[in-house]
Amino acid sequence: MTLEACMPDALLESRQNEVLIQRAMGQLPEEQRAALLLRATEGFSYQEIGRQINRPENHVKTLIHRGRQRMKQLLGAHLGKNDP
Amino acid sequence: MTLKPCKNETLLSALMDNELSDEDAAAVHRHMEICLLCRQRFENLKQTDTMIQNLAPLEPSADFEKTFWRKVADLENRSKFRFPLRFLLSGWRPLLATGMMAGLAAAIFLYTDHEKRLTQEDIYIAQNMELLDDYDVIDHLDMLEQWDIIDTLKDPS
Fold first, then answer.
1. CA end-to-end span of chain B, whole Å?
2. For a FRET experiment, which of B37, B98, B107, B117 has its CA 20 to 30 Å from that of B131?
3. pLDDT attached to residue A51
4. Which tens digit of pLDDT belongs to each residue from B136-145?
5. pLDDT score, position A77
6. pTM of full prediction above 0.80
7. Taking CB atoms and an 8 Å limit, are A41 and B53 in contact across chains?
8. Distance in angstroms between the alpha carbons of the first and the last residue of chain A
9. pLDDT band at A78 (very low <50, low <70, confident <90, very high)
10. How far is Cα A50 from Cα A61, in angstroms, rounded to an integer?
11. Biggest CA-to-CA distance, chain A
12. How far is A18 from A21, CA to CA, in rounded Å?
């Protein structure tokens, strides 16, 4: 019997979503992924992120926004999110 | 300056991240009160961001540290051997380079040595190519030694 077969449905779905999100993150361009992760998971400011990846603040803002848009596209079909 | 989130969607991300000034943030909020499209986009961005924030951190593999330092060392070694000469001087490469040079030298030696293998006779012939055209003259050259006698014999009178 596999591990997935023993898991409750909600937990299994949550785990599957996590895998989907991680795969989607892997498809982002490197800079977008780095900027997005530094902002979303680490909470760095745009200025701090810019210093870390050696990019100006405006560029960081664009990277983060495009990263979020791309993630929305990649996950939209799987998670049932509709784009406006 | 009038902010237009409809045309510049990055303003919505910046608002969500508290990266706008108070004045700009207020302007974007006022815009979203009247613009359904920007409100929906803002909500979608928030949902996407929440999903990413809720991701469990990836645990590195057991050999992550070892792999990491090995890759750093590889990068350092690669930068050290930037010049072809240094590259050739590591490991088995010097032997290969020496073998190739020796082979090339042998090929040049054999080729040039073959061309220079000329006998003295070859040299003599080359120097006297014009005379070979008149082989008869050379063959009977000894007759010219007695030419005085032959000349008198031609005209008895």
1. 136
2. B117
3. 94
4. 555 666 666 7
5. 65
6. no
7. yes
8. 42
9. low
10. 9
11. 52
12. 5
What are the pLDDT digits (tens) for B89-104? 667 878 888 899 999 9
Burial bucket for residue B52 (CB in 10 Å: 0-12, 13-18, 19+): buried
Question: Which chain B residue has its CA at the smallest distance from A19's CA?
Answer: B55
Count CA atoms closer than 13 A to B21's CA, side-chain side.
Answer: 3
Residue B21 structure tokens: 């000034």
Contact B17 A39 (CB under 8 A): yes
Interface of B with A (CB under 8 A): 9-10, 12-14, 17, 19, 37, 40-41, 44-45, 47-49, 51-53, 55-58
SS3 sequence, A57-82?
HHHHHHHHHHHHHHHHHHHHHHHCCC
Q: Which residues of A touch B14 (CB under 8 A)?
A: 46, 61, 65
Q: How many Å separate Cα B110 from the centre of its chain?
A: 31
For B20, phi then psi, to 5°, come to -100, 155
Residue B82: CB atoms within 10 A of its CB come to 8
Q: What is the pLDDT of residue A83?
A: 47
What value of ipTM does the predicted structure carry?
Answer: 0.77
What's the angle, vertex CA A17, arms to CA A14 and CA A18, rounded to 5?
85
User: In whole angstroms, what is the distance from residue A65 CA to residue A63 CA?
Assistant: 6
